[in-house]
Amino acid sequence: MSVSTAFDRARAEGRAALVGYLPAGFPDVDGGIEAIRAMVDAGCDVIEVGLPYSDPVMDGPTIQAAAQQALDRGVRTSDVLRTVEAVAATGTPTVVMTYWNPVERYGVERFARDLAAAGGAGLITPDLTPDADPRWPAAADEHGLDKVYLVAPSSTDERIAMTTKACRGFVYATAVMGVTGARDTSSDLADPLVKRTKAATDLPVSVGLGVSNGGQAAEIAAYADGVIVGSAFVRALLDHPDDRSAALDALTALTADLAAGVRRGR
Amino acid sequence: MTALETGTFEADDQGWFGDFGGRFMPEALVAALDELTAAWKEAVADPAFQADFDAILRDYAGVPSLLYDARRLSDHLGGARILLKREDLNHTGAHKIRNVLGQALLTKRMGKQRVIAETGAGQHGVASATAAAYFGLDCTVYMGAVDTRRQALNVARMELLGAEVVPVESGSATLKDAINEALRDWVSTVDHTAYLFGTAAGPHPFPSMVRDFTRSIGDEARAQCLELTGRLPDAVAACVGGGSNAIGLFTAFLGDPDVRIYGFEPGGDGVETGRHAATIHAGASGVLHGARTFVLQDEDGQTVESHSISAGLDYPGVGPQHAHLAKSGRADYVPVTDAQAMDAMALLARTEGIIPAIETAHALAGAYDVARELGPDGIVLVNLSGRGDKDMETARTWFGLGKDT
Q: What is the mean pLDDT of residues B268-290?
């Protein structure tokens, strides 16, 4: 199922979509599935399942810590696919966000096939630009998967045109020049980037990096089609390491705040 | 014509050396990498830049380095004549000064005021801090927290040179994690900061650019060998971690089909033990730090920690041009164990009065075998890439030197 169904529904309701991220296997595989289901129940429209990787150059300390914890407990690529299957079964479009090497190692074609079979909608590739490797777009097309590439404030208009042309599902606009992690203040780079991106494509444009609360979500929802939140969800779990029910309550409350935010923005 | 026939082995415009290299990087850094690519191409084609670079190397770094005829060593081994390219005599004690002065000069040309660097044992960090001091640039060096503890003296050197050293606690807290952290810095500071990459690896244009800034090693050595012996060597040898000193030596000889090229990789406790850093010999094709190359990884593509007695070779990836040279058959890459390297270090010290870096000792150990195989009529040219002062604590422990006081 493409993520476009979720963006279409949000658009029909006159609001932005809420995209929530958690890495698979954190705090453990089943606990991660339970946590993501709580996010779905509380109002996430699209789920990103992170594939924990040993060398996450785009991630700040929060997501690094969660991914490392998952790896230390032995999470495998197969666990990521199992997580996707469990989340997609809720009917919520589910994409995988991953650095490239684990996909290359798994086998690009095999990964696409197994992701599609698990009900996954597609892949977000933070260190794979459309011009880096032609095998992923070919495999994604073959299996009807979304291809979500990133655009950044530093992207030239030419690269935005090239990147958006290669995307299917939505376009991921990074709000800041930096890595993942909650930030207190909103970025003034996101709005102009979304404008430049929308000038190049009709695809939904979602903004991520640094969004942590309903107020920021509302600001972004005023000009973007989707609001992506990752580190803040991870933080909610990290803050309650020994109390599963308190962690789920925190996730639910954060999701509700963000879901209200994306509905307030217009 | 294949690369083997043309002898060029150059990357294409996208940074691909055959199946290896390329650029697997966040979109946020692409503009900066494009800008760097354009600036580097312009600079190397500009005679004024080349003249500046040559003058700095000559007047500040002590380049060209000597080519030394190691007669006592050769006699001792009873094999080929061994010539040593004395990069250990350069300022800061290794070949790395060539790369950092080149990149720092380019940074000035691009109008940026700050440089960042990663370092494992601290050699590239010290070289970067040195170049930053020379050019009056701000400098931040990322270093794994495990390494800052192991190499406290190099941390002090960098700080004395005016650099800020940031210990990296994430991941395995070693070189690969220092690279990750430097990339994280760069993505948020790229408008005013240059990343002085320490080896001929990483995303395009770093593998080609670092080669261009180090290839004078081989250009000098080739001319010096011709002058000294009247002919080319039968073989050239260098150690390979990321591979900057090796590619710096090899490049001049790629088009000489009769010159055999050997890269000696860190075999650690022995490749069969799994505790090694012999990336080409025992790794699998993958993507690490922005390039497709050979990577030590598990079956899920997670990077596996490498092991070597030599911190400067202790890296789970390798420069993509080496991967290409290996796959094409132009160069041979052979593992050398910790024990073989340490024996080679001791032998050079005792026969020639030169204490090499442990990195370099890997090249020596391999070259000794090549020399024996070639016999007395042969010539082997070895890149003596660095001096061993920094390794005395390791050597003291390994050989049981000094009194237990």
A: 97
pTM for the model: 0.96
Name the CATH topology of A4-264. TIM Barrel (3.20.20)
B138-144 and B164-168 as β-strands: parallel, antiparallel, unpaired? parallel
Q: What is the pLDDT of residues B34-66, one digit of tens each?
A: 999 999 999 999 999 999 999 999 999 999 999
Question: In the numeric block, which tokens belong to residue A147?
Answer: 């291809």
**In contact, B324 and B18? CB cutoff 8 Å:** yes
- Which residues of B are less than 8 Å from A129 in CB distance? 23, 25, 27, 30
Give the best residue of B193, B294, B295, B300 to mutate against chain A (max A CB count within 10 A): B300
Point out the residues of chain A with pLDDT beneath 50: none
Residue entry with tokens 């977000």:
A124
Percent of chain A topping pLDDT 70? 100
Positions of A marked active-site = 48, 59
Closest CA to A6 of A148, A143, A104: A148
Question: CB–CB of B114/B140 below 8 Å?
Answer: yes
Contact A71 B288 (CB under 8 A): no
Q: Which CATH class is domain B25-58+96-210?
A: alpha beta
- Cβ of B184 within 8 Å of Cβ of A68? The answer is no
pLDDT in tens, A138-190: 999 999 999 999 999 999 999 999 999 999 999 999 988 888 888 877 788 99
| Shortest Cα distance, chain A CAs vs residue B357, angstroms | 29
The pLDDT confidence band at residue B4, using thresholds 50, 70 and 90, is low
Percent of all residues in chain B with a pLDDT value above 70, rounded to a whole number: 98
Residue type, A70: A
B30–A155: do the CB atoms touch at under 8 Å?
A: yes
CATH number for the B62-93+215-399 domain, one of 3.20.20.70, 3.40.50.970, 3.40.30.10, 3.40.50.1100? 3.40.50.1100
Residue B136, Cβ density class (10 Å: 0-12 exposed, 13-18 middle, ≥19 buried): exposed
Domain with CATH 3.40.50.1100 in chain B: 25-58+96-210, 62-93+215-399
In degrees and rounded to multiples of 5, residue B279 shows phi and psi of -65, -45
Amino acid A265: pLDDT: 75
